[in-house]
Amino acid sequence: MKLAVIGTGPIGTTLARTFSAGGHDVEVANSRGPETVDAAVLEFGARAVTSREAVRDKDVIILSVPFGRIPDLAPLLASVPTETVVIDTSNYFPELSGRVEAVDQGQVESLWVAEQLGRPVVKAWNAVLAGTLQTRGVPAGTPGRIALPVAADSDAARRVGMGLVDESGFDPCDAGVLADSWRQQPMTPAYCTELTLPELEQALAAADRDEAPRNRDRQMSRFATLTSAPTLDETVELNRSLHR
């Protein structure tokens, strides 16, 4: 497939490397220009281009930018054909991206993203830590393989997203439509807790919509009090501990 990755943070970088290594035709762009894309992103054949070049003639466009920057991408995507699958990996953390009143009032994050972009999106790779994505993907069929949720209103687009999640080393979990994607938002049981597929399905079902934003804010305050950065395993354990 012809893929674009917009954003070269840890998630975007890993996805660009993974899919170019897997034989996909990948172009990468960020907000600072192609000359600023790190060589490691391009190691397996991905090409650094401008954002406008990146979204041209693509099967899939992966947006891996901060939640607060999503509205800035609307003009970029305005001319992208409706059949192009757009995947959003972002999460709403008010302390990082600024407050969004509609989301604070209860609008599902993915629906807000789709509204800002003026087109449907697939929600994927938002519920995985960068370290997990970088180091814990394994081939399909591996016992204990970590699963990731994928939500979209289009069955066809969701299948595309699930296929790419599988290629990235994780079991894809059909998380339904975007209206239900609050179940994979920050600090729900499904969020960054490294669960197997059966465990993830149970976690999605157990999510509490009202409790999730309170857990998010509590967890961010908790992280702020730590005197050193937690390891990957410690972060996963802290996230799991919210739901015991």
TrEMBL record:
Compositionally skewed regions (Basic and acidic residues) per UniProt: 207-220
Residues covered by region (Disordered): 207-228
Keyword Transmembrane: no
All copies of domain Pyrroline-5-carboxylate reductase catalytic N-terminal, residue ranges: 2-92
Name this polypeptide is given: Putative NADP oxidoreductase
Keyword annotations of the record: Oxidoreductase
Cited InterPro entries: NAD(P)-bd_dom_sf, P5C_Rdtase_cat_N, STEAP_metalloreductase
Keyword Transcription regulation: no
